[in-house]
Amino acid sequence: MTETAYMEFYDYREQAAMQSGTDSQILGQTGSVLNNGLMGKNNAASESRIIAVQFQPSSLQFQASAQAMSCFRGDISKPADEGKERRENAEPASPGNLTMSVSLIFDRTIYEDSDVTPQVEGFLAAVRSPFTRQVSFNWGELYYKGRITGIQVSYEMFTGSGVPMRAKMDITMALSDTSAQIG
User: Fold this and answer.
1) Are residues 129 and 86 in the same domain?
2) CB count, 10 Å around CB of 16?
3) Which of these three, 54, 80, 95, is where a domain ends?
4) Contact status, residue 7 vs residue 53, Cβ threshold 8 Å
5) Surface-to-core class of residue 163, CB atoms within 10 Å of its CB (0-12 exposed, 13-18 middle, 19+ buried)
6) Structural domains in the chain (count)
7) pTM
8) Which domain holds residue 113?
9) Which of 26-35, 44-53, 87-96, 102-111 ranks highest by mean pLDDT?
10) Bridge partner list, 135
11) Which residues lie closer than 8 Å to 126 by C-beta, 6 or more apart?
């Protein structure tokens, strides 16, 4: 069974163009695919796009890692002039990495226009551009915000003429420190 969640893509192309003095049309290919490929609601006030997506709740996965900081300490077992510095692990650890993976489903098998390519290309365009990788994933009371670090797409069903009408997309996000919020 699938559930509906919402992904919000934050678009920083205009800000980047203003800061660098570049015409925002130069950054336009990503915008064209993102705006045309993702059939969501544009939120002009925050320069973001909200897209309803289908996913299987059983596939929401998290991975965390902590990175220990290392430091140098003098060897106190020898006189100060003979002391060599040695590397030791020290805590507290530096902030670790927290990633979330979710599997999205694009299924247009019951529609006359059964092509899922525009939606898939919209997500791929978002990850190609460094200005549109910031996203949030919202489902019920869960809210996670971060940066897309990877997308893997598998087309699973085609029309007789070879048009993809169902796809599965695995998205991996590096979550921000404050992204896991409930309520």
Assistant:
1) no
2) 15
3) 95
4) yes
5) middle
6) 2
7) 0.68
8) 3-62+96-182
9) 102-111
10) 9, 146
11) 9, 30, 34, 38, 132, 133, 135, 148
